[in-house]
Amino acid sequence: MRGSLRVLEIGNLRSAYGRIEVLKGISLEVRVGEVVALIGSNGAGKTTLLRALSGVQPITGGEISFLGERIERLPSHRRVARGILQSPEGRQIFGPLSVEDNLRLGAYLRRDNDIDEDREKIFGMFPMLKEKRSQLAGGLSGGQQQMLAIGRALMGKPKLLLLDEPSLGLSPVLIDQILAAIVSLRAAGVTVLLVEQNAAAALEIADRGYVIETGRIVHSGAASALLSDPKVKASYLGFE
Amino acid sequence: MPEFFQFLVSGLTVGAVYALVALGFTLVYSASDVVNFAQGEFVMLGGMVTVFVSTAGVPLPLAALIAVGVSIVIGLLLYWLAIAPARGASAISLIIITIGASIFLRGAAQIVFDKQFHKLPSFSGDTPVNLFGAAVQPQSFWVLGGAAVIVLLLYVFLERTLLGKAVLATAANRLAARLVGINTATIMALAFGGSAAIGGIAGILITPITLTSYDVGTQLALKGFAAAMLGGMGNPLGAVVGGLLLGSLEAFGAGYISSTYKDAFAFIVILVVLFTAPQGLFGRRAVERV
To answer: In total, how many domains does chain B have?
Structure first.
């Protein structure tokens, strides 16, 4: 199944902040069941791309197809309804609300009866969230907030999960925990587009990868090939 | 001592109206970051529409219902015609837009209605009730009870319903709210409509005591804003406490010091709060854990 159907197809996507163009024609695709890593340095446009996919960053050109349908003109809530969920950079949890309420709001648009069951699954994945279920999310530590942000996105039953810098600011132990969670998500059939500055870690668990530099894709290929590519190594993996 | 209770009761009664106006400020501010200075006009609309519709022969409860409906429609129009198109404008621009809307509504009311003062009959007669030596108008109980019911309903809505939590989520983090699929434009419209309804009800409840005219909104908006600042902008509990405190302060100041300076107290409160504790009594600290 993996590799056949395209979940996401982006063609020549452009976006700008005022006069400064941040995405200068991005094209990429994500297939069913894949984990695709998007790597690149600070300011390359990774977060802007994910925000454009979720419909919270205006685009100036190009197209986005999701499961074969064009979505670039849909407002953000319609994209969530179709199954594009994001765990944003900087976590962005609802601080004054409880952990449980944060998770419930992740399923805001769902009308099915499996919401409680899915919450228990997320508690199984991140037991710490269960312990703190009635505490205010703003009082959690950085790592706990990161797990909550991922859990909240999963509550929306994603067909495509966008993860923006899930390892940012976390200790190595927590990073391993988050990466293991992503691997188990893939096993459960979730398609993931993963943005990371921690390129080595991202490529370790990804199927394929794209390298983005000042708003353009400059390399792409199988994750293992990128890991051994001398240019990628020199620029993003921190060794020669 | 009887005069103390007399001042307290009249202070809390007026304070309950300030609290409702402050609640409207807080609701809109939480959902949209807009400080809506047209909030007082909804109180005017509630009173004036009830007066004119009931004068036309409609029974008072139905007239009151129509007045609340009119307030809600005006609140939604304010959002859709004036606030939503200016999305992304600076806070100052949005405040100026609401001041403009407030002037427009006052002008329109002057034409549609008139420039006279109007009264509504008290809901339960005018025989004062003796309470701790103070003569209390039965309408005061309507105002205080009505305000209590509104606060309770709002609390239940925000804390116990998914839509209410979506309002809180939008207030806490608009980007994240959009990313979980909340239509934040709908939430903002809901906040404008809801605060207009609250203002309209406040106007209907207080008109038998204070009378109403096309221009009562300005003063009430300033008092309600002072109350919201005192309680901490964006905090519903703070709005209620701030309103009751401000009303009592005015009543005691007017009673024990001089009624000439009654209106000055609200503005002294704004200045003291801004200089000493800009976050208000219950306001969120600017610092949040990251």
So the answer is: 1
State the fold for domain A6-83+158-237.
Rossmann fold (3.40.50)
Q: Hey, are the CB atoms on A95 and B181 less than 8 Å from each other?
A: no
pTM above 0.80, yes or no: yes
pLDDT tens, position by position, B189-233: 999 999 999 999 999 999 999 999 999 999 999 999 999 998 888
Nearest to B169 among A75, A86, A94 (CB): A94
User: What are the boundaries of each domain within chain A?
Assistant: 6-83+158-237
| Structural contact between residues B65 and B58, judged by C-beta atoms closer than 8 angstroms | no
Place B267 in a pLDDT band, splitting at 50, 70 and 90.
Answer: confident
- The residue range of the domain holding B161 is 23-217
Domain contains B30: yes
Q: State phi, psi for B129 to the nearest 5 degrees.
A: -100, 135
Q: What is the mean pLDDT of residues B40-67?
A: 96
**Which two structure tokens, joined as six digits, stand for A205?**
């668990």
B173 contacts A92? CB cut-off 8 A? yes
Mean pLDDT for A151-177 is 91
User: Which amino acid appears at position B35 of this protein?
Assistant: V
In a domain, B263, yes or no: no
Looking at the domain assignment, is residue B134 inside a domain? yes
Average pLDDT score over chain B: 91
**Cβ atoms B235, B285 nearer than 8 A:** no
Q: Are strands A208-213 and A216-222 parallel, antiparallel or unpaired?
A: antiparallel
Q: Which of B173, B180, B288 sits opposite A108 (nearest CB)?
A: B180
Integer Cα distance of B245 and B198 in angstroms:
19
Is the pLDDT at A57 greater than 80? The verdict is yes
Return d(Cα A10, Cα A12) in angstroms, integer. 7
